Request: fold
Amino acid sequence: MNIAILTSGGDSAGMNPAIKRFIEYSFELGLTPYLVYNGLEGLIDNEIKKATSKDASGIINRGGTVLKSSRSKRFFEKKYRKKAYENLKKLKIEKLVVVGGDGSFRALNAFYNDFKMPFVGIPGTIDNDIHGSEYSLGTDTALNIIRSAIDDVRDTASSFRRGFVIETMGRDCGYLALVSALTSGAEICLIPELKADMKSIKKRLKKEFAEDREYLIAIVAEGTHEALNLTKWIEKEFGVESRLTTLGHIQRGGTPSTFDRLMAYEFVTYGIDALLKGESGKIVVYRNAKVDLRSVAYVTKGKHKLQPELLKQAKKLMS
Ligand code: F6P
Reply:
């Protein structure tokens, strides 16, 4: 049986370990693995080749995706999905594994509705914003990169009397910012999911500056669009110079963490097993400390929410 894998949307650490596991597990099961290059665009343009065991070597420690990725607009048009389906048919590819984020899964939902092409999705995005899954590949590696950056900023912050604002990625999701703030001892955190009480933050930190506070660190999720405003606000309210650091795409790079390699292994193993049992149109998810499946319709229709316990912690840094 021929089976293919592609990576789609924003790349994330864990995609390469997932590709490696896909190739090796396919061979182990007697399947013929295929690689689709350039994400959903490559599916349309027939950039598909048979994998060899060499394709799996030397990639487990690499960030990004050796298959390359794309955010395909064309795939949202039926004529291109039809082309993609015909390419798969020509190569007698019967099953598909797609590693990506919610945009990719929405495109796949349409593909599934059109042609009932058997596929499983694997969450792969640093944003950790997949509805129905508590984990997406790349999140742990991104958190480690952010932690290391905040630790470095703290060195200079503690040498001056200054405010430091650090903006993290995450699109509309505050997960990266919130977990980073909690695990780095930040004084302020702004995320799109909760409204901050600036009056209360001011009162809390004014008192601390009047006592022995020398500097402060604030973590801001990009989805709030408040990083620059907060930097100016800190200068105005506390009378300390402030600096803004936008971490940007460095958060998407780096060698995949042990956890991301392990999760890639588990997600792909579970996904291929599920496909062979006849499952289809499903996303492999992580919930209640277990790998599981959810329908693509469920995952793409709902909006991801931060866990209530995390949100409770957030309140302390937003008031
Ligand atoms: O979805 C992953 C992500 O890195 C987001 O955190 C960010 O908003 C976006 O992608 C950036 O997209 P691009 O790489 O296309 O600029």
